[in-house]
Specification:
Number of helices of chain A: 18
Number of strands of chain A: 23
Structural class of chain A: alpha+beta
Largest sheet of chain A: 7 strands, antiparallel
Oligomer: homodimer
Helix content of chain A: 25-40%
Chain lengths: 661, 661
């Protein structure tokens, strides 16, 4: 870890300004994410709430709430009617929805919604056993098998998600009931694994990052100790899952206990140097590790995180910020293996990469980490959701070929249009909770610096520290200008705000002005550290260079040799058939050709700018193989932002386009 | 089917000159395939014989011969020690080896080998049940389950291979014992399926083509009837396998009875228009269909074959003649889906495509069918075997990437070097029997025309028809010249030989001379029909245009857009790392650059010509994604024939190379 190794929380002199506080303190304003915030509030969360309550006609039932009811009934009366239904981790859907709802309540108070949340929380409390244990699968279905199959049974995973929900709900609404419930559960876990010395570590990481959040919110050292415990024991005995299975041979999924990559237990975490296995598990684990490293100042752990982050971003990440090259195991594969059409590239994994990168940002304050947050957010994650919020992709390929995508044996997972809902409902609520907590990625603060990371229009309330608010106005990502203003709290004088503004790697030249004149700032680690500090009268304006850039992949990656992709600002573009005579495979970009940027098209795809690039369209040989080179005629290729693809029916899509003179 | 619809056998005026007769009548001469013939005789067959007898140290045992011994013992004494071992189709390994041995004996008489074959045949006879039934799996292990699982249990498949062996052994050695055994088995099958009316059709086609061979060899009409029966009932009830499983729920593999593509039962065969499912099964089925169509003059069946062949060769075939794009199901996928690195492209499937294409050639006498035989033979099939005959590929990708190939989840099957032997030993003996019977693909005859299809140096004995031999001298495929001479039988005068010489599609201009002067011939359907007929004094010389050609794939195929491959004569070339600074991914071919052909390099890779192409080598960006275009410097790219790849250790290989100005 470079000398810049600083922690956000432990080095704080005054009151810690934790990540979650930001959600309450930041109000999303009008602009790109304003629309998304409304969408989550008005469409995504209500739809998911109905799903959790089995009120969606024609969809596979969730049974989530019903599972909690049954568990509560059983605990009260000794038995319950009906059977547990759903995945072994079904509880986590309720947790993720509650977390998303909490963020929404912080932005848009809603008594009805809050009441319904409180009722669900009471139900959760009623489903908790006397010793603090909470999990409806085990309470209803397998009461004798608690903690006997860490490899597959997701108990710690579910606990982790409910802990996250509890912390979020407490911070956003000020209500501590769920936090109490989950502290009881965390205490139960502590007794089992620490005091009673139970062996093992979770098959699906999540508890680690959740316990770190719980620790930060409650200041209870045992939760940090427990988080570190799960991090530290992982992979020390790589055969733990095997031994566990030999001892208790009941199975949930039939996971292979000899596969030590799938759940990242091939070595102790500080010795891990390749991002392997199930991509979501991996980045959730690394998020917990990075958070723990930041909290404890554990340089060895921080270095492992850095190595793993470098491995991902230099060898195992798509240009959209997606990760996980293979459907099988929903997993990372090998360095420089990034197929476009068969990518797994799960929405949840990109979200996890955002979690991980953001912790790395908090750890090292280097802009490259926020660059990856931005890459994954604006491209893969947003593509995961239909623009109207009603449908979702789990899988986000970089090339879609109707007739093959979603149909060939190798492409069953890579659907060319978003389906309506999933039996395994992990990605949609994950999108909701990420979009609800954008503040965490937009800003962070350490003593002496307020970092502006993403450029989400809105108002950050820093009254307690600086006596006012920082207002960012922008039409980013389509417009290249930012405007920061400082608004004092009524009756107070605003103090100086020490701002550091991220300079994205794609901006060749960035103009920063203070009150219309070139500002004095130091460019370091991907940030413009404004010299001096700014107050109520000041306006800082930033102009990025949003010229269209051509992206090239290292030739180590076979799929993209000879090809290029177009990027403008943080947005990766793609060519879709619907704009290009239903055939994007015959297109190539002219090597030094012009690329024009359209006006802002407010009525298309909820508001975009298109790109029109000089290119070639080749004739299509009818013969499969031919000795005749296809003739190429000049043409204009139309590109739309990748996150908007698949919103206009079934058609071809391609990000990486061959380039020729 | 065009007006040229003629059948090879039924239209014959004189004695039929069947396919198998050719193996005995054709002596491979010195040249490219002379070396292969020796290799099969001296290395491949002896190794396989030892394997069948469990004499290979360190290899998984075959147990093939032992299974027959046990079956014989059980039939004699009522019981046997030990257990059946191996795949349910293990018997077919013995069959394929015997067929290969038969061809070898036809070319190179070998008393010892023939004696050992005769002993094995006696053992096979002793393992046959009184009612003619022959299958060691069922005789030893599951005596009560005969004919209850056609979907998975491969009884008809094993019977088919042993019938092929029987016909081959009879024709090549004149000994009829195995033919008697297999006629008894065929009679048993006839009684069961025709006389007793048992339902169903085989999960793995093979019996159809085998029964056609048996019919042709024995002239027994019932065998043709039985072959047609299996062809005609297939897919009429697409749910047959499902019903069979409900009736007798024992399983071998757990094949999905709802998958109606895997075993080509989605529709009656005459209505099938897409080549689907397990590629070997598909082409074995189509081979039987084409043979039956030829035999019966069934135009509807012939048209279905034509449609399926067109579908394969225009949408589902690699440039190497390989087929089967997906590992899962070892199967065809969808039109125009031809990934290079994850291809299944099984050696056996390319061999099956040769079988099918050759039957189509016999049916229609159009050169395009022989073009595909040649494409698959010289490229995919030969690549299936290490040049020294000791190792084999099942899977023949068109791109190999060490670190990914054979290692990533999606590439476990696509090994970058040939492994030593396989537990499932299907491909190696298939290569042996194909190379042993090249005569069938080299020549065919109908009244009035002797077709020269492949250009394998050697001597065809046509004494019974024309009073002598036709001798082809050539160093094809590296040299472009053919020389045909006509040698009368001693004491006879040679009659006129009506020759039609195939003009491969890759030869832009072909010079054909008779005794040094431009010959009079009619070019039609890919053949030069020599006008007049030629006798003992005449020399026909052919000079093909073997200029290097650039091959382009239709833009319908995503994987190859912007790329080209090099071909010279019938050989597809590839770039390997070992010749190109261990990095072929940074190479691109100069659009109109020169390609030089090396001298014949007798000491390299058992004799090849290399290609040296003008190209570009790009710098490799260390960054995974970069806004900087890689710089390109002129370079010379070295290419070797695809069939020789992977013979010089682990390294990159690529067939399709980006092309740029």
């Amino acid at each position: 870890m470079p000398p810049a190794f600083r922690t956000m929380y432990t080095d704080m002199e005054g009151e810690a300004m934790g990540d979650l506080r930001l959600v309450k303190d930041f109000q999303v304003g009008e602009g790109f994410f304003g629309r998304y915030e409304k969408l989550v509030q008005e469409v995504v969360l209500p739809y998911q709430e109905r799903a959790l309550n089995d009120q969606i006609e024609g969809a596979e039932k969730s049974h989530c709430i019903e599972n909690f009811r049954m568990a509560a009934e059983k605990l009260k009366t000794g038995h319950c009617d009906g059977e547990f239904y759903g995945m072994v981790f079904q509880d986590s859907d309720v947790a993720k929805w509650l977390e998303g709802a909490a963020y929404s309540l912080a932005q848009n108070p809603d008594e009805d919604l809050e009441k319904r949340c409180d009722e669900i929380i009471e139900l959760i409390g009623a489903a908790q056993q006397k010793d603090g244990y909470l999990n409806t699968y085990f309470t209803v279905k397998e009461p004798d098998k608690r903690w006997t199959n860490l490899h597959e049974a997701h108990e710690l995973y579910c606990a982790g998600h409910m802990i996250e929900a509890a912390v979020a709900y407490a911070e956003c609404t000020g209500k501590g009931r769920l936090l109490e419930i989950m502290c009881d559960m965390a205490d139960h876990i502590y007794r089992h694994f620490i005091e009673e010395g139970a062996e093992g570590y979770p098959g699906h990481p999540e508890i680690e990052l959740a316990l770190m959040r719980l620790y930060r919110s409650t200041k209870e050292e045992r939760y940090k100790e427990l988080a570190l415990h799960f991090i530290n024991v992982r992979g020390v005995d790589p055969d733990y899952y095997k031994k566990e299975m030999e001892k208790n041979p009941w199975r949930v999924w039939g996971n292979n206990p000899d596969d030590k990559e799938y759940a990242q237990n091939y070595a102790p975490v500080r010795q891990q140097d390749k991002a392997v296995g199930h991509a979501v598990r991996a980045v959730y684990l690394y998020t917990g590790m990075a958070d723990a490293a930041m909290e404890t100042g554990d340089t060895e752990l921080a270095n492992a995180c850095k190595t793993l982050w470098d491995n991902i971003t230099q060898h195992r990440m798509y240009v959209t910020g997606a990760i996980g090259s293979a459907y099988e195991g929903e997993a990372f594969t090998k360095d420089d293996h990034l197929p476009n059409d068969t990518a797994y590239a799960e929405t949840c994994a990109a979200i996890g990469l955002i979690f991980f990168s953001n912790k790395m940002l908090y750890l090292a304050h280097e802009g490259k980490y926020a660059d990856v947050v931005e890459r994954a957010l604006y491209n893969c994650v947003l593509a995961g959701m239909q623009l109207d919020g009603t449908k979702f992709f789990y899988v986000n390929p970089l090339e879609a070929l109707p007739g093959i995508s979603g149909e060939a044996q190798t492409h069953k997972h890579a659907l060319p249009v978003r389906p309506k809902w999933f039996a395994c409902a992990c990605c949609p609520p994950n999108v909701a909770r990420l979009l609800g907590s954008l503040a965490e990625y937009t800003w962070h603060v350490i003593p002496g610096t307020l970092f502006s990371n993403l450029f989400v229009a809105g108002t950050l309330d820093v009254s307690d520290r600086f006596g006012g608010r920082v207002v960012l106005k922008t039409d980013y990502p389509y417009d290249n200008k930012l405007e920061y203003r400082f608004v004092p709290q009524e009756g107070r004088e605003m103090m100086e705000v020490p701002l550091a503004i991220r300079i994205p790697a794609w901006s060749k030249e960035t103009k920063i002005c203070l009150n219309g004149k070139t500002a004095d700032c130091e460019i370091r680690d991907g940030y413009a550290y404004m010299r001096g500090a700014y107050t109520a009268e000041d306006v800082i304006t930033v102009e990025f260079d949003m010229a269209v850039r051509r992206v090239y992949t290292s030739n180590r990656v076979s799929a993209n040799t000879g090809r290029t992709a177009l990027q403008r600002g943080p947005l990766i573009y793609c060519a879709e058939g619907v704009d290009n005579e239903n055939d994007v495979l015959s297109l190539s970009l002219k090597r030094d050709g012009e690329v024009k940027v359209s006006e802002y098209l407010a009525d298309e795809l909820f508001g975009i700018k298109k790109l029109y690039a000089e290119g070639w369209r080749e004739t299509v040989n009818e013969e499969l193989y031919s000795f005749k080179r296809q003739e190429a005629k000049p043409c204009t290729i139309t590109f739309v932002p990748y996150y908007t693809w698949g919103n206009r029916g079934l058609n071809q899509m391609r990000v990486w386009i061959p380039e020729r003179d």
